[in-house]
Protein 1
Amino acid sequence: MCKVCQRRPEVAGDPYGRCESCAKAGRRAYQFRLRAGGSELQVVAGELSPRALNKAAGQALLACSTRPSVRPHLLGSSCELVMAGRRLETIRAAPALSSRLEQVLEALRTAARRTDASW
Ligand SMILES: [Zn+2]
């Protein structure tokens, strides 16, 4: 199954385990792990460093006004950014975060303001 859209079969040999359609669109999914720090959520690990997240999606996250959607393939307190090239398509969150979707977006925005090379 395609690791990005979770809908179509993945094509053999794609380095990111994508279907043909997602590979063609240059679509990628980047996972991040969140932890509750007090009443807020914080990103504590991710497939992109804070600096790379800022570069890839910093502006898009600030402009983003849609709530993250809940997707059952995400486990624990993880979330995922789906980018198509330089465009932010969607933000997805694990079911455990379904009551805190606004905080997920806020945590990603905060993380994207950092300039560190690692978490
Ligand atoms: Zn796909």
Protein 2
Amino acid sequence: MKPQLLHSFLFQFFLLCTAASENEAQSTGETIVFTTLGRSDYAWDIFTLPSSDPPNPSNEHRITDGVSVNFNGHLPSSPSSSILSLLRNRSLIQAPSPQAPTGLQLIYVTERNGMTNIYYDALYCGVLRSSRSRSALETPVRVQAPLLGLEESKHRVSMKDRPSLSGENLIYVSTHEDPGEPRTSWAAVYSTHLGTGLTRRLTPYGVADFSPAVSPSGVWTAVASYGEDGWDGEVEELSTNIYIFLTRDATNRVKVVEHGGWPCWVDDSTLYFHRKSDDQWMSVYKATFPKDKPILANSVKIQRVTPPGLHAFTPATSPGNHMFIALATRRPNSSFRHIELFDTVKNEFIELTRHVSPTTHHFNPFISPDSAQVGYHKCRGENNGGQTSQLLLENVKSPVANLSLFRVDGSFPTFSTAGDRIAYVNFPGIYVVNRNGSNLRRVSPLNAFAIAWDTVRKGILYTSAGPEFSSESTEVDVVAIDVDNVDGSNHRRLTVNGKNNAFPSPSPDGKRIVFRSGRTGHKNLYIMDAIEGEMGGLQKLTDGPWTDTMCNWSPDGDWIAFASDRHNPGSGCFELYLIHPNGTGLRRLISSGKSGRTNHPSFSPDGKTITFTTDYGGISAEPISNPHQFGPYGEIYTIKLDGSDLKRLTHNSYEDGTPSWAPVYISQVDVVWSKRTQCAFEDCHWLNKMSGGRGTMVEPLGSVSLNLLASALLWKRNCGGFTRASYVLKGYKQVIVEMDNLEALSIINGSHSDNISITLVAHILNIRNRNWNIQFKHVARTGNCVSDMLSKLAPIADFSINHWNPLQHLLQNDMMIGY
Ligand SMILES: *[C@@H]1O[C@H](CO)[C@@H](O)[C@H](O)[C@H]1NC(C)=O
Ligand SMILES: *[C@@H]1O[C@H](CO)[C@@H](O)[C@H](O)[C@H]1NC(C)=O
Ligand SMILES: *[C@@H]1O[C@H](CO)[C@@H](O)[C@H](O)[C@H]1NC(C)=O
Ligand SMILES: *[C@@H]1O[C@H](CO)[C@@H](O)[C@H](O)[C@H]1NC(C)=O
Ligand SMILES: *[C@@H]1O[C@H](CO)[C@@H](O)[C@H](O)[C@H]1NC(C)=O
Ligand SMILES: *[C@@H]1O[C@H](CO)[C@@H](O)[C@H](O)[C@H]1NC(C)=O
Ligand SMILES: *[C@@H]1O[C@H](CO)[C@@H](O)[C@H](O)[C@H]1NC(C)=O
């Protein structure tokens, strides 16, 4: 050890001790952090547009609070007075005056205070006197009331979804009951009487149901369900069937449609649904029940409603309306999901939201009972009247009282050993931020994944990085980065052969590093010297023709936990294993059932428990109802080292991944930062596939980084810039970047160095290295550049095209909980 290092080692050791004793004092529990792809950008509100007037920004109305994450609305037909009279918490009902006319009432899902719940909002058209100006302002007064308390879910944490009101009963999905089987969804439909709270499960035990819809008479409920066959691991379109049953008592359950999802009723014998057609377009279909025969799958008449040539899905109807339905579309000439009407008499589409917010995704339409309004949710954006604080640490309601659970706005979030800083990766770039959100810094421009802090030397991070601008994406090496010395000499490469060396995890004494390497042609585990790297000594820990990966060294030094498919090599099925660092004691910690995906183990500070991400809880909603998630099944779990006490911590329909334990307890409060623009999420990648002319599949090509890049340039140059990528015909390998900012354009076009915007340049160099034709086009625009920038921030932040990344397969292999 060099004298300098030794000195710094002693100094850090001293710091560590003081930090630890400080934290000890406040410690009353434990903390797990994890990430959810895109979720921090889901600043959603519910909006409406009239169904008959030409849509324009002035007749679009935001009808939720502009603060929470609000989605999947339903406009009930019962009068608001009767709903309000049913609410059990009387203190919530402070209508402005009993006579005040309600403008609108809405039932919807909301994520707030770390939980999902179903809320009821009534908007009154009240008149408020502003104290500052004398003018009277027409301001809607909002009553917001939760429709469910904790008791309806037996005081368990759960996801709630797809509410609708039928008489005095709320029908909805909840995930609070554990089916007790690996890879089985917890989603089931429940009915709660609003007046008494009496709750009844409508889904049979042993079955999962999604997307419930109640018929106009209230007699029938339709659901999408696998029935008893269960989930087979799909993450795109689910191969569900549609079942109906009596809403009253869940009897008379019968399958009415083979292959379909997202049912909605026009009357008690007509429902619409979506399915992927044989020509690969998602399309809306109509099912008509026989009037004179028993309703069975083979007696139901099924007709395709929407034509090939575009994806049409998540249909919505209103009672008795045989004239039109609403649906979401992805058209070949748009990268955005829009809400349209479909005239079922003339067989014509009527576009709605593209006239209002063309470059924003819109989800899951619904129609008011009188057919006059169409609702949907979308990102509120800065100019849609909402204010959202972007959260660095989002407190997520934990089922364990003294375990804090935080969603971090960054991938592979990892706390420093002293618990004061968080590192995360951003594809590309590694960032470090204080845990209170201050002092955010990029400490490396590398395209890297998986990070771990050194346990002894303060400020040293280990990561797995591809060589900068490498065209060979499998070249990955373990690198140590000194985050407190960011002058270019702070990177040390510890592995040298570039054979997919990744997932470094240091031993608690800071002397060695376990990592996985593909150097033999298979990914197995190795241990090397933490300072000298593999040149200072290399031990092969596991060996075999399978994949061992995502290793984590226990705090007591005795165990290494990892994910492996060794029980079924190449199957893509990963389970968790434990091994001693000396190669003895190998055992399986958890099996995840047939083709399960259980990944990313991380030890608790006391070494007795492991947190990980898994598809153990199946899928919780139809993936098409959300933006893109690689693995919509991912949930965070814990298990004791002896295999006992398996616990599910998170409940949602997103991919929760890469959990890690913090060394200190952090109180369960959001940490806000005002760092990034919102709404930078992508639509389901599989909907980007469109059938083009001459039968060729066309994929819009581009990358999320073009988007990030545009925003980065905006910030940097304080000026407008707009990028879009063109569609790319398979085989033609061409991408067109359009910008309205000549200055930015010439920088990108001319630059072969990395000092302007590493993101853009890296990706463009990558495209060039692959002999793609890349064209830069200036798109003329007029107007003031600063105000243009402001007006364009929201749509650009929404910019969403197919995720193309040179490390794409690594992402899928390693970061995401897929394989
Ligand atoms: C969490 O609470 C349980 C019971 O209240 C207690 O046994 C346990 O020690 C606590 N854990 C920590 C880390 O404080
Ligand atoms: C009723 O609602 C109020 C306001 O949100 C809340 O403070 C109170 O705890 C609630 N009471 C019950 C019994 O849930
Ligand atoms: C997409 O195509 C439709 C129908 O062909 C057309 O009406 C619409 O204007 C096009 N949209 C864009 C954004 O070009
Ligand atoms: C955040 O934490 C840093 C480091 O602990 C501290 O210096 C800073 O004052 C804190 N900032 C705020 C706003 O609390
Ligand atoms: C291997 O290591 C474990 C714990 O780290 C220890 O209990 C065991 O005795 C060791 N076995 C050998 C053969 O050294
Ligand atoms: C981009 O660069 C190429 C060559 O470096 C040049 O010929 C072309 O005019 C540039 N395009 C724009 C739009 O600046
Ligand atoms: C890139 O960095 C070099 C050296 O630091 C500097 O001279 C040059 O101006 C930078 N280029 C731009 C466009 O900022």
